[in-house]
């Protein structure tokens, strides 16, 4: 009889469903190489920044074209904000952005397409791994087209999310002023609550799209919707922490290298968090695979019958002994006659 007592963690898991769910999600994340996939997604996230910056410079060049007064003003502000010795090189970069705006834009678009599709492919593979899906590999062109459509859908979800956040932060204050409630503390508190709720709702839409629509195979929408709530809350916390980190930077070195390091850490943490939330959705009770043990095969009794041509050893010994006794008795009777 096994009298081994369950461990404290096992007892807590039996008592609290959320803890048991978290342990299952962490196990799924580790088993399916969540950190490795997060590193790959982070690499393509950072790689995509350079072509996006090139596109931004190209747009800036088209805006500043034939407007020398704006170019001079921009160069003056860059020179004042940049550390000593970097003002002139940054000013030359502004001039080159204006002069080579078309070439920079085309190269940036090509680079953004390459890095964006690579980012989406790695993200979809990572999400599929957390769901433990088995799918057939599509052809190269079909796979790239599917990734492009998924990237477009994610972009629309992000635009909608940012739009809700902008409405909450940009227009709600004006609404209070128009209504004459700007000086009331409860109205300002209500405004903060509405802003936070709109931001959370926007994040929820993004996480819902990522968890439910980006894996290679269809998944349950109910599990994704519940996990997206956790994703929205955690993402808001990460954004607040990143804002506090950027606000704490000071000095020329911190202003230059701090945002780059912070961006790398933020991208890696967000990638890991997305995969963990996906593992949370995949390990929900309704998604647990039921292991059906097949019934044992019927026992077949086959009696083994061994046939010998003659007696075995024990029988032969008994016969010899009986013959000796019979012979001795027969000889005794003959002597008496």
Largest sheet: none
Whole-number average pLDDT? 77
Portion of residues within helices: over 70%
The H/E string reads HHHHHHHHHHHH
Please explain how this structure is put together:
The protein has 337 residues and is mainly α. It has one domain (8-132, 142-287). It is 78% helix and 0% strand. It is built from twelve helices and no strands. The chain has helices spanning 8-15, 17-31, 34-47, 49-64, 68-81, 87-99, 101-131, 140-179, 185-213, 221-247, 251-282, 313-336. Helix 7 (101-131) packs parallel to helix 11 (251-282). The relative contact order is 0.09.
Summary of the model, kept short:
This protein has 337 residues and is mostly helical. It contains twelve helices and no strands.
Entry keywords:
12 helices, 337 residues, 78% helix, mainly alpha
SSE topology:
Blueprint: H1 8-15, H2 17-31, H3 34-47, H4 49-64, H5 68-81, H6 87-99, H7 101-131, H8 140-179, H9 185-213, H10 221-247, H11 251-282, H12 313-336
Helix pairs in contact: 1-2, 2-11, 3-7, 3-11, 4-6, 4-7, 5-6, 7-8, 7-11, 8-9, 9-10, 10-11
